[in-house]
Design goal:
Blueprint (H helix, E strand, L loop, with lengths): L5 H22 L19 H46 L2 H4 L6 E2 H7 L4 H13 L3 E2 L5 E4 L1 H8 L1 H18 L2 H7 L11 H6 L5 H6 L2 H14 L7 H6 L10 E5 L5 H9 L4 E6 L1 H10 L8 E5 L13 E5 L7 H9 L10 E7 L9 H18 L6 H11 L3 E8 L5 E8 L2
Parallel strand pairs: 4-5, 4-7, 5-6, 7-8
Antiparallel strand pairs: 1-3, 2-3, 8-10, 9-10
The structure holds S-adenosylmethionine (SAM).
The site of S-adenosylmethionine (SAM) has 18 residues, from helix 11.
Length: 422
Protein backbone atom coordinates (compact mmCIF):
# COMPACT_ATOMS: atom_id res chain seq x y z
CA UNK A 1 0.00 0.00 0.00
CA UNK A 2 1.33 3.50 -0.82
CA UNK A 3 2.23 5.33 2.40
CA UNK A 4 0.02 8.35 3.08
CA UNK A 5 1.35 11.69 1.84
CA UNK A 6 3.02 14.07 4.34
CA UNK A 7 -0.10 16.17 4.91
CA UNK A 8 -2.19 13.12 5.82
CA UNK A 9 0.58 11.84 8.08
CA UNK A 10 0.69 15.21 9.86
CA UNK A 11 -3.11 15.33 10.20
CA UNK A 12 -3.08 11.78 11.62
CA UNK A 13 -0.41 12.82 14.16
CA UNK A 14 -2.49 15.83 15.15
CA UNK A 15 -5.56 13.63 15.62
CA UNK A 16 -3.64 11.16 17.74
CA UNK A 17 -2.05 13.84 19.95
CA UNK A 18 -5.20 15.94 20.40
CA UNK A 19 -7.17 12.78 21.26
CA UNK A 20 -4.63 12.06 24.04
CA UNK A 21 -5.01 15.61 25.38
CA UNK A 22 -8.83 15.54 25.20
CA UNK A 23 -8.94 12.19 27.03
CA UNK A 24 -6.87 13.69 29.85
CA UNK A 25 -9.06 16.81 30.04
CA UNK A 26 -12.24 14.70 30.15
CA UNK A 27 -10.83 12.40 32.81
CA UNK A 28 -9.94 15.39 35.01
CA UNK A 29 -13.10 17.41 34.43
CA UNK A 30 -11.12 20.20 32.69
CA UNK A 31 -13.16 22.06 30.06
CA UNK A 32 -12.05 21.75 26.42
CA UNK A 33 -10.13 24.76 25.11
CA UNK A 34 -12.42 27.49 23.82
CA UNK A 35 -12.37 31.19 22.94
CA UNK A 36 -14.95 31.94 25.62
CA UNK A 37 -14.06 34.09 28.66
CA UNK A 38 -12.95 32.08 31.66
CA UNK A 39 -10.76 29.71 29.64
CA UNK A 40 -7.51 29.04 31.50
CA UNK A 41 -4.56 31.05 30.09
CA UNK A 42 -2.75 27.76 29.50
CA UNK A 43 -3.91 24.14 29.36
CA UNK A 44 -3.04 22.50 32.70
CA UNK A 45 -1.22 19.38 31.47
CA UNK A 46 1.26 17.04 33.16
CA UNK A 47 4.83 17.00 31.72
CA UNK A 48 4.25 13.94 29.47
CA UNK A 49 1.26 15.61 27.85
CA UNK A 50 3.16 18.89 27.50
CA UNK A 51 5.34 16.87 25.17
CA UNK A 52 2.28 15.59 23.30
CA UNK A 53 1.00 19.16 23.04
CA UNK A 54 4.36 20.23 21.59
CA UNK A 55 4.18 17.47 18.99
CA UNK A 56 0.60 18.44 18.04
CA UNK A 57 1.59 22.10 17.64
CA UNK A 58 4.66 21.16 15.67
CA UNK A 59 2.66 19.01 13.24
CA UNK A 60 0.02 21.73 12.97
CA UNK A 61 2.64 24.33 12.16
CA UNK A 62 4.10 22.26 9.34
CA UNK A 63 0.68 21.26 8.03
CA UNK A 64 -0.41 24.89 7.95
CA UNK A 65 2.68 25.91 5.96
CA UNK A 66 2.34 22.98 3.56
CA UNK A 67 -1.36 23.51 2.90
CA UNK A 68 -0.92 27.23 2.33
CA UNK A 69 1.91 26.60 -0.14
CA UNK A 70 4.70 29.11 -0.71
CA UNK A 71 2.35 31.82 -1.93
CA UNK A 72 -0.03 31.54 1.01
CA UNK A 73 2.83 31.19 3.47
CA UNK A 74 4.52 34.33 2.17
CA UNK A 75 1.24 36.23 2.39
CA UNK A 76 0.81 35.04 5.98
CA UNK A 77 4.25 36.42 6.87
CA UNK A 78 3.40 39.78 5.37
CA UNK A 79 -0.01 39.87 7.09
CA UNK A 80 1.66 39.34 10.47
CA UNK A 81 2.93 42.93 10.21
CA UNK A 82 -0.68 44.13 10.46
CA UNK A 83 -1.81 41.76 13.20
CA UNK A 84 -0.16 43.98 15.77
CA UNK A 85 -2.07 47.03 14.53
CA UNK A 86 -5.40 45.87 15.95
CA UNK A 87 -3.72 44.58 19.10
CA UNK A 88 -2.14 48.01 19.48
CA UNK A 89 -5.59 49.61 19.09
CA UNK A 90 -6.91 47.30 21.82
CA UNK A 91 -4.10 48.55 24.06
CA UNK A 92 -4.15 52.24 23.20
CA UNK A 93 -7.95 52.59 23.47
CA UNK A 94 -8.08 50.25 26.47
CA UNK A 95 -10.74 48.25 24.62
CA UNK A 96 -10.90 45.28 27.03
CA UNK A 97 -11.92 47.46 29.98
CA UNK A 98 -14.72 49.05 27.90
CA UNK A 99 -16.46 45.77 27.11
CA UNK A 100 -18.94 44.64 29.78
CA UNK A 101 -18.10 41.29 31.36
CA UNK A 102 -20.76 38.73 30.48
CA UNK A 103 -22.57 40.82 27.84
CA UNK A 104 -22.03 42.01 24.29
CA UNK A 105 -21.87 45.61 23.10
CA UNK A 106 -22.68 47.20 19.72
CA UNK A 107 -19.37 47.62 17.92
CA UNK A 108 -20.29 51.25 17.02
CA UNK A 109 -20.88 52.09 20.68
CA UNK A 110 -17.55 50.54 21.65
CA UNK A 111 -15.80 52.55 18.92
CA UNK A 112 -17.43 55.74 20.27
CA UNK A 113 -16.18 54.94 23.79
CA UNK A 114 -12.68 54.76 22.33
CA UNK A 115 -12.99 58.39 21.18
CA UNK A 116 -11.51 57.51 17.83
CA UNK A 117 -12.88 57.87 14.32
CA UNK A 118 -15.76 55.39 14.56
CA UNK A 119 -15.27 53.86 11.18
CA UNK A 120 -11.53 53.34 11.65
CA UNK A 121 -11.91 51.91 15.16
CA UNK A 122 -14.74 49.61 14.02
CA UNK A 123 -12.50 48.22 11.29
CA UNK A 124 -9.64 47.68 13.76
CA UNK A 125 -12.01 45.88 16.14
CA UNK A 126 -13.35 43.77 13.30
CA UNK A 127 -9.76 42.72 12.56
CA UNK A 128 -9.33 41.86 16.25
CA UNK A 129 -12.41 39.61 15.95
CA UNK A 130 -10.80 37.83 13.00
CA UNK A 131 -7.74 37.21 15.19
CA UNK A 132 -9.67 35.68 18.14
CA UNK A 133 -8.96 38.73 20.30
CA UNK A 134 -12.69 39.49 20.53
CA UNK A 135 -15.83 37.42 19.91
CA UNK A 136 -18.66 38.45 17.60
CA UNK A 137 -21.74 36.74 19.05
CA UNK A 138 -24.10 38.43 16.53
CA UNK A 139 -23.64 40.81 13.62
CA UNK A 140 -22.71 44.33 14.69
CA UNK A 141 -21.82 43.32 18.26
CA UNK A 142 -18.64 42.21 20.02
CA UNK A 143 -18.01 40.54 23.35
CA UNK A 144 -15.06 39.41 25.43
CA UNK A 145 -13.00 36.46 24.27
CA UNK A 146 -10.73 34.41 26.51
CA UNK A 147 -7.83 36.69 25.49
CA UNK A 148 -9.54 40.05 25.97
CA UNK A 149 -10.78 38.87 29.40
CA UNK A 150 -7.19 38.21 30.38
CA UNK A 151 -6.25 41.72 29.25
CA UNK A 152 -9.19 43.25 31.16
CA UNK A 153 -8.55 41.38 34.39
CA UNK A 154 -4.76 41.32 34.73
CA UNK A 155 -3.05 44.72 34.27
CA UNK A 156 0.36 43.09 33.66
CA UNK A 157 -0.97 41.48 30.46
CA UNK A 158 -1.97 44.92 29.24
CA UNK A 159 1.49 46.24 30.08
CA UNK A 160 3.08 43.36 28.19
CA UNK A 161 1.06 44.24 25.09
CA UNK A 162 2.01 47.91 25.56
CA UNK A 163 5.72 47.09 25.80
CA UNK A 164 5.44 44.85 22.74
CA UNK A 165 3.47 47.35 20.62
CA UNK A 166 5.08 50.62 21.69
CA UNK A 167 8.66 49.74 22.65
CA UNK A 168 9.65 46.60 20.78
CA UNK A 169 7.65 46.44 17.57
CA UNK A 170 8.61 49.99 16.39
CA UNK A 171 12.28 49.09 17.03
CA UNK A 172 11.83 45.96 14.91
CA UNK A 173 10.81 48.06 11.91
CA UNK A 174 14.24 49.76 11.96
CA UNK A 175 16.55 46.81 12.63
CA UNK A 176 17.72 46.53 9.05
CA UNK A 177 18.22 50.29 8.74
CA UNK A 178 20.33 50.22 11.93
CA UNK A 179 22.34 47.32 10.57
CA UNK A 180 22.94 49.25 7.34
CA UNK A 181 23.84 52.48 9.11
CA UNK A 182 26.18 50.84 11.65
CA UNK A 183 27.64 47.75 10.01
CA UNK A 184 30.29 45.57 11.60
CA UNK A 185 31.67 45.07 15.09
CA UNK A 186 31.66 46.04 17.83
CA UNK A 187 27.92 46.05 18.36
CA UNK A 188 27.04 49.04 20.53
CA UNK A 189 23.89 49.28 22.66
CA UNK A 190 22.95 52.72 21.34
CA UNK A 191 23.11 51.81 17.62
CA UNK A 192 19.87 49.87 17.35
CA UNK A 193 16.42 49.87 15.78
CA UNK A 194 15.24 51.49 19.02
CA UNK A 195 17.72 54.37 18.55
CA UNK A 196 16.68 55.00 14.98
CA UNK A 197 12.95 54.81 15.52
CA UNK A 198 12.99 57.00 18.64
CA UNK A 199 15.73 59.27 17.35
CA UNK A 200 17.73 58.91 20.54
CA UNK A 201 21.41 58.35 21.27
CA UNK A 202 20.99 56.42 24.53
CA UNK A 203 20.43 52.69 25.16
CA UNK A 204 16.86 51.50 25.76
CA UNK A 205 17.15 51.25 29.56
CA UNK A 206 18.28 54.87 29.73
CA UNK A 207 15.25 55.83 27.65
CA UNK A 208 13.14 54.09 30.30
CA UNK A 209 14.88 55.93 33.13
CA UNK A 210 13.75 59.20 31.55
CA UNK A 211 10.14 58.02 31.41
CA UNK A 212 8.76 56.56 34.68
CA UNK A 213 5.49 55.37 33.06
CA UNK A 214 7.35 53.35 30.47
CA UNK A 215 9.75 52.06 33.13
CA UNK A 216 6.77 50.93 35.24
CA UNK A 217 5.21 49.24 32.19
CA UNK A 218 8.45 47.42 31.38
CA UNK A 219 8.93 46.34 35.03
CA UNK A 220 5.38 44.90 35.05
CA UNK A 221 6.19 43.05 31.84
CA UNK A 222 9.27 41.57 33.52
CA UNK A 223 7.09 40.54 36.47
CA UNK A 224 4.75 38.76 34.05
CA UNK A 225 7.67 37.05 32.29
CA UNK A 226 8.46 35.35 35.62
CA UNK A 227 5.06 33.66 35.37
CA UNK A 228 5.61 32.36 31.84
CA UNK A 229 6.16 28.61 31.39
CA UNK A 230 9.89 27.93 31.56
CA UNK A 231 10.71 31.34 33.06
CA UNK A 232 9.34 30.76 36.58
CA UNK A 233 11.84 31.35 39.41
CA UNK A 234 11.26 27.77 40.61
CA UNK A 235 13.51 26.28 37.92
CA UNK A 236 16.50 28.44 38.93
CA UNK A 237 15.76 27.80 42.60
CA UNK A 238 16.02 24.05 42.04
CA UNK A 239 19.10 24.19 39.79
CA UNK A 240 21.44 25.48 42.51
CA UNK A 241 21.88 24.50 46.16
CA UNK A 242 20.94 27.88 47.65
CA UNK A 243 20.32 26.32 51.08
CA UNK A 244 23.98 25.22 51.26
CA UNK A 245 24.96 28.91 51.29
CA UNK A 246 23.56 29.24 54.81
CA UNK A 247 23.64 32.83 56.10
CA UNK A 248 25.13 34.39 53.00
CA UNK A 249 24.65 37.51 50.97
CA UNK A 250 23.32 37.27 47.44
CA UNK A 251 23.34 40.34 45.22
CA UNK A 252 20.58 40.18 42.58
CA UNK A 253 21.98 42.58 39.99
CA UNK A 254 19.25 44.08 37.79
CA UNK A 255 16.76 42.28 40.05
CA UNK A 256 13.89 44.50 38.87
CA UNK A 257 11.11 44.75 41.46
CA UNK A 258 12.49 41.91 43.58
CA UNK A 259 10.14 39.13 42.48
CA UNK A 260 12.88 36.53 42.20
CA UNK A 261 14.40 37.67 45.50
CA UNK A 262 11.06 37.16 47.26
CA UNK A 263 10.81 33.58 45.97
CA UNK A 264 14.43 32.95 46.93
CA UNK A 265 13.99 34.13 50.55
CA UNK A 266 10.71 32.25 50.93
CA UNK A 267 12.61 29.01 50.38
CA UNK A 268 15.90 30.14 51.96
CA UNK A 269 15.06 32.51 54.82
CA UNK A 270 18.67 32.62 56.06
CA UNK A 271 19.88 34.39 52.92
CA UNK A 272 20.28 38.13 52.84
CA UNK A 273 19.51 39.46 49.38
CA UNK A 274 20.43 42.84 47.97
CA UNK A 275 18.30 43.70 44.94
CA UNK A 276 19.94 46.30 42.72
CA UNK A 277 18.38 48.08 39.76
CA UNK A 278 18.02 51.53 38.22
CA UNK A 279 16.44 54.24 40.45
CA UNK A 280 12.96 54.25 38.84
CA UNK A 281 12.72 50.48 39.08
CA UNK A 282 13.87 50.42 42.72
CA UNK A 283 11.30 53.10 43.53
CA UNK A 284 8.61 50.86 42.02
CA UNK A 285 10.02 47.90 43.92
CA UNK A 286 9.70 49.84 47.19
CA UNK A 287 6.04 50.55 46.52
CA UNK A 288 5.49 46.80 45.81
CA UNK A 289 7.13 45.76 49.06
CA UNK A 290 4.34 45.58 51.60
CA UNK A 291 4.63 44.67 55.27
CA UNK A 292 4.45 40.94 54.39
CA UNK A 293 7.62 41.28 52.32
CA UNK A 294 10.72 39.72 53.68
CA UNK A 295 12.92 41.91 55.88
CA UNK A 296 16.05 40.16 54.62
CA UNK A 297 15.76 41.83 51.24
CA UNK A 298 17.45 45.20 50.77
CA UNK A 299 16.59 47.34 47.76
CA UNK A 300 19.35 49.57 46.38
CA UNK A 301 19.58 51.76 43.32
CA UNK A 302 22.78 50.86 41.49
CA UNK A 303 23.98 51.23 37.90
CA UNK A 304 25.80 48.01 36.98
CA UNK A 305 28.15 49.94 34.71
CA UNK A 306 29.68 51.43 37.88
CA UNK A 307 31.78 49.59 40.53
CA UNK A 308 29.82 47.05 42.56
CA UNK A 309 29.20 48.55 46.02
CA UNK A 310 28.50 45.28 47.89
CA UNK A 311 31.92 43.98 48.87
CA UNK A 312 32.63 40.34 49.57
CA UNK A 313 29.19 38.86 48.87
CA UNK A 314 28.95 35.09 48.37
CA UNK A 315 26.88 35.24 45.18
CA UNK A 316 26.42 37.87 42.49
CA UNK A 317 23.37 36.85 40.49
CA UNK A 318 22.39 37.98 36.99
CA UNK A 319 18.98 36.79 35.87
CA UNK A 320 18.08 37.69 32.27
CA UNK A 321 20.50 40.64 32.37
CA UNK A 322 23.50 39.89 30.18
CA UNK A 323 21.37 38.81 27.21
CA UNK A 324 20.27 42.47 27.01
CA UNK A 325 23.81 43.62 26.26
CA UNK A 326 26.33 43.19 23.45
CA UNK A 327 29.63 41.54 24.27
CA UNK A 328 31.60 44.72 25.07
CA UNK A 329 28.95 45.87 27.53
CA UNK A 330 28.76 42.42 29.19
CA UNK A 331 32.52 42.58 29.67
CA UNK A 332 32.22 46.00 31.33
CA UNK A 333 29.37 44.80 33.58
CA UNK A 334 31.32 41.73 34.72
CA UNK A 335 34.52 43.71 35.30
CA UNK A 336 32.67 46.13 37.61
CA UNK A 337 32.40 43.23 40.04
CA UNK A 338 36.10 42.45 40.25
CA UNK A 339 37.24 44.89 43.00
CA UNK A 340 34.45 43.56 45.25
CA UNK A 341 34.98 39.86 44.71
CA UNK A 342 36.48 37.66 47.40
CA UNK A 343 38.25 34.46 46.29
CA UNK A 344 35.68 31.71 45.72
CA UNK A 345 32.80 34.16 45.24
CA UNK A 346 30.20 32.86 42.80
CA UNK A 347 28.79 34.70 39.83
CA UNK A 348 25.58 32.98 38.73
CA UNK A 349 24.20 33.74 35.29
CA UNK A 350 20.61 32.62 34.76
CA UNK A 351 19.90 33.35 31.14
CA UNK A 352 18.67 31.88 27.87
CA UNK A 353 21.01 29.24 26.44
CA UNK A 354 20.34 28.84 22.72
CA UNK A 355 20.00 25.16 21.84
CA UNK A 356 21.97 23.87 18.84
CA UNK A 357 20.29 24.70 15.53
CA UNK A 358 17.79 22.06 14.39
CA UNK A 359 17.28 20.43 17.78
CA UNK A 360 13.94 22.12 18.51
CA UNK A 361 10.70 21.68 16.55
CA UNK A 362 10.53 24.38 13.89
CA UNK A 363 7.81 26.43 15.61
CA UNK A 364 9.78 26.50 18.88
CA UNK A 365 12.98 27.38 17.06
CA UNK A 366 11.05 30.28 15.49
CA UNK A 367 9.93 31.52 18.93
CA UNK A 368 13.46 31.59 20.29
CA UNK A 369 14.77 33.18 17.05
CA UNK A 370 12.09 35.90 17.44
CA UNK A 371 13.43 36.49 20.95
CA UNK A 372 16.94 36.76 19.46
CA UNK A 373 15.75 39.34 16.91
CA UNK A 374 14.05 41.29 19.70
CA UNK A 375 17.44 41.46 21.47
CA UNK A 376 18.97 42.73 18.22
CA UNK A 377 16.28 45.39 17.76
CA UNK A 378 16.30 46.75 21.29
CA UNK A 379 19.86 46.29 22.51
CA UNK A 380 22.17 45.15 19.70
CA UNK A 381 22.60 42.04 21.82
CA UNK A 382 21.80 38.40 21.23
CA UNK A 383 20.66 35.15 22.77
CA UNK A 384 23.77 33.01 23.32
CA UNK A 385 24.56 29.32 23.30
CA UNK A 386 26.37 27.86 26.30
CA UNK A 387 29.61 27.85 24.27
CA UNK A 388 29.14 31.57 23.50
CA UNK A 389 28.49 32.27 27.20
CA UNK A 390 31.65 30.38 28.14
CA UNK A 391 33.74 32.45 25.68
CA UNK A 392 32.19 35.72 26.87
CA UNK A 393 32.90 35.00 30.53
CA UNK A 394 36.47 33.85 29.85
CA UNK A 395 37.15 36.98 27.75
CA UNK A 396 35.83 39.26 30.52
CA UNK A 397 38.62 37.94 32.77
CA UNK A 398 40.41 34.57 32.80
CA UNK A 399 40.07 34.53 36.60
CA UNK A 400 36.34 33.91 36.09
CA UNK A 401 36.26 30.12 36.11
CA UNK A 402 33.13 28.59 34.54
CA UNK A 403 32.41 25.65 36.80
CA UNK A 404 29.12 24.32 35.42
CA UNK A 405 26.30 24.99 33.00
CA UNK A 406 22.93 23.48 33.85
CA UNK A 407 20.09 23.57 31.33
CA UNK A 408 16.91 24.10 33.35
CA UNK A 409 14.23 21.46 32.72
CA UNK A 410 11.45 22.44 30.25
CA UNK A 411 12.97 25.89 29.94
CA UNK A 412 15.09 27.86 27.47
CA UNK A 413 17.06 29.12 30.47
CA UNK A 414 20.35 27.79 31.74
CA UNK A 415 22.25 28.43 34.97
CA UNK A 416 25.97 29.11 34.63
CA UNK A 417 28.03 28.87 37.79
CA UNK A 418 31.21 30.92 37.68
CA UNK A 419 33.81 30.97 40.47
CA UNK A 420 36.19 33.88 41.05
CA UNK A 421 39.68 32.35 41.24
CA UNK A 422 42.26 35.14 41.49
C1 LIG B 1 15.28 41.81 31.32
S1 LIG B 1 15.14 42.65 32.85
C2 LIG B 1 15.44 41.32 33.98
C3 LIG B 1 14.93 41.62 35.33
C4 LIG B 1 15.03 40.49 36.36
N1 LIG B 1 16.39 40.09 36.66
C5 LIG B 1 14.19 39.32 35.95
O1 LIG B 1 14.72 38.21 35.81
O2 LIG B 1 12.97 39.51 35.76
C6 LIG B 1 16.62 43.61 32.87
C7 LIG B 1 16.74 44.49 34.13
O3 LIG B 1 18.02 45.17 34.08
C8 LIG B 1 17.82 46.46 34.62
N2 LIG B 1 18.89 47.36 34.17
C9 LIG B 1 19.12 47.80 32.91
N3 LIG B 1 20.21 48.60 32.88
C10 LIG B 1 20.68 48.64 34.15
C11 LIG B 1 21.81 49.28 34.75
N4 LIG B 1 22.66 50.03 34.03
N5 LIG B 1 22.03 49.09 36.07
C12 LIG B 1 21.17 48.32 36.81
N6 LIG B 1 20.08 47.69 36.29
C13 LIG B 1 19.85 47.85 34.98
C14 LIG B 1 16.46 46.85 34.08
O4 LIG B 1 15.91 47.94 34.78
C15 LIG B 1 15.69 45.55 34.24
O5 LIG B 1 15.06 45.46 35.49
Amino acid sequence: MTPPGRIVQLATDILEHTTGIQTYLDAHGIPSPSFEPGTLPKLPLPPALEDTLGQALSALDELNALLLGPLGWLKTQIDHAYDLVSLHAMYRFDVPSKIPLGADIPIGELARKCNGDNNLVERLLQHAVSNYLLIQPRPGYVAHSSTSTLLAQEPAFKDWVGTACEDMWPAGTKVIDALTKWPGAPALPHQTGHNLVENTAVPFFQTLEGDPDRARRFANTMWLMQKMPGFEPSAALDAFDWAALGESTVVDIGGSTGDFARELTKKNPKLHIVVQDLPNVIEKARSNFTRDSSSNITLKAHDFFTPQPVQGADVYFFRMILHDWPEESCTQILRQLIPSLKPGARVLVNDICMPPVGTLPRYQERQIRCQDIAMMAMFNSQERSSAQWARLIERADPRFHLQSVVQLPSSPLGLLQVIWMP
